[in-house]
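dumping this here so i dont lose it
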């Protein structure tokens, strides 16, 4: 099946984040409305809900396009994506007034302070998570749709 290979790659890429992000939305709504958290979580939902599935789809398409020339494993390709998402998300959050960078950490919503020493291990965990998700789940989706 060689028809519409890039469309299938895009659909395989958006599959997982499109399933998971509504679960995060429900959790955020419960935290905001159910637990009466004072900070506006919904302002931080715009970036992930709108862009992350599309970026995953485009990133999977780029892997399919580059595969004949580069032969990069899909897990390594997926582990590069947080290097694009984190700076873009931090820039958008800073422009919207959600994130303030300090000398020792960041402040979310003017109430939650996170030191850089905590961000570093979370960043490494995200890289490992992206590697495993792309290696096993996205690799499976690509094989199932006869892309890889």
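and the seq i came up w/
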């Amino acid at each position: 099946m060689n028809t519409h290979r890039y469309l299938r790659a895009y659909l395989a890429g958006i599959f997982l984040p499109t399933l998971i992000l509504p679960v995060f939305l429900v959790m955020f709504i419960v935290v905001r409305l159910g637990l009466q958290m004072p900070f506006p979580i919904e302002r931080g939902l715009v970036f992930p809900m709108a862009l992350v599935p599309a970026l995953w789809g485009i990133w999977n398409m780029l892997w399919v396009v580059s595969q004949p020339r580069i032969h990069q494993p899909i897990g390594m390709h997926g582990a590069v994506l947080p290097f694009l998402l984190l700076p873009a998300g931090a820039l958008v959050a800073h422009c919207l007034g959600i994130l303030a960078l300090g000398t020792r950490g960041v402040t979310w919503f003017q109430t939650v302070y996170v030191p850089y020493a905590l961000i570093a291990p979370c960043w490494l965990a995200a890289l490992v998570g992206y590697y495993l998700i792309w290696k096993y789940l996205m690799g499976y989706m690509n094989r199932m749709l006869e892309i890889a």
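The two ends are 12 Å apart (CA to CA).
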